[in-house]
Amino acid sequence: MKSTSRLVRRLAPTLALVGLAAACFPLSAGAQGGSQPGSAPPRFSSSTVPGSMGIPQPEPRITLTLPVKRTLARVLHEVFKQASGYEYRVAVPSEGLYAADFKDEPLSQVLRKVAAQAPGAEPLVFGFQRNLIGGGGTYVFHREYMEVGLIQGEPRVSVANARLTQVLPEIFKVLKVPYRIEKDVPPVLVSLQLRPTNWDQVLPQLMLEAHRVEPGLGYSRDGDTYVIHLHKSPTGISATGQPVPGFNGRRTNIAVVNTPLRDAVAQLLRGSTWKYQVARPLEEVRVTYSTTNYPELAALAPDKATEL
């Protein structure tokens, strides 16, 4: 977003909380805000459920019990008999025997339980490739590879088909900063090869890679703590901060100078279908901020603030 004025950095967490309330917690009709009675926030289609890693929802449900352990190929063959429209591919050699005892469980949950039984130092993981036409798609199994840190005297990030939720702790360990990964952040597979001269640049690049699979992923700061989170509402922006082509949600214009936060948010969300509430201690906090033709929820995001 191009901002023509200053938004004091210390107010970014405040705007983040306001945005969270507007995006995720629609309030009662008596709450402050600019929506019409009976209005509701937009719903996701089954193809864009946040946190699903692109897997169409709802998923096929699997019930399967094998009396003895079988090879991975045999277990997957039996599982996918109950998953019409879906296929699988194992891109690495498979070893060992696997148990199967599932009762009415979602397909991806079943596959995670199967993969967790794989022997070897490198975990067995899977990604999903959606069919270009129609529903369904292909689950592809890989071995997870990850090296992060000072490797043979050289700073290195070398990850291939690695779960984001496993890579992030290693990145933050190198950065030596506190962090929190929200529970609904999915284990998106990422592949990245870097020789960083500045480790501060690694996190944005890693999140951009994850964003290709799960567009709702993002991160922010809560004081000194980095927070990895999943947007539950379509903000209309990409991980690079640019508007998503074809986004048909509401856009907003705002230009406020030294304005109480209460009034600034009211102007930003005027005509919106979202209800919101500004905490009383924050109502008179003053902000200076401007943007034009920007998705309304994205305009509340702290990482879109600029300080001139």
Give structural notes.
This protein is 20% helix and 29% strand. With 308 residues, the protein is of the alpha+beta class. It folds into three domains: 9-42 and 239-304, no CATH class; 47-142, 3-Layer(bab) Sandwich (Phage tail protein beta-alpha-beta fold), CATH 3.55.50; 145-230, 3-Layer(bab) Sandwich (Phage tail protein beta-alpha-beta fold). The strands form five sheets. Strands 2-5-4 form a three-stranded mixed beta sheet, covered by helices on one side. The protein has a three-stranded antiparallel beta sheet with strand order 6-7-9, with helices on one face. A hairpin with a 2-residue loop joins β6 and β7 (154-163). α2 runs antiparallel to α3. The relative contact order is 0.20.
* Number of structural domains: 3
**What's the pLDDT, averaged over the residues?**
80
Q: pLDDT below 50 for ≥5 consecutive residues: which ranges?
A: 1-47, 302-308
What's the quaternary structure here?
A: single chain
Q: How many angstroms separate the termini?
A: 14 Å
Strand order of the largest sheet: 2-5-4
Order of helices and strands: HEHEEHEEEEHEEHEEEHE
Helix content: 10-25%
Percent range for β-strand residues: 25-35%
Concise summary:
The chain is of the alpha+beta class.
